[in-house]
Amino acid sequence: TLYVERVEYIQDAGATRIRLWSEWYDACLKVDRGRNDKFVEACVSTIVFVEEDYIKRKLDFVTEVYALLEMDDPVLANQILNDLEILWTWKKDEFILKLEI
Fold first, then answer.
1. DSSP character string of 20-38
2. Is the confidence at residue 49, as pLDDT, over 70?
3. Domain ranges, residue 45
4. Closest among 80, 37, 30, 36 to 59, alpha carbons compared
């Protein structure tokens, strides 16, 4: 189902982020001569990208679930918005703008 696919998609992004963080951490633990600074920098920029992508995927997922529930179960749809506000206060305005488009 679409729900299962979206959850797996989000979980894959989370697993990628953890793997990258682990590689970055291992590289940072190496002594200066053994450390590849270019690799460390690449890990940092990739981690930032993956984190932003992960948040975007979750917001897209919330948007899809909200759209499915809005007409049939407005109480649950509003609860989703409330949960979003609690978890990611800084993203709620962006999310609401997206719904209005």
1. HHHHHHHHHHS-TTT--HH
2. yes
3. 2-100
4. 80
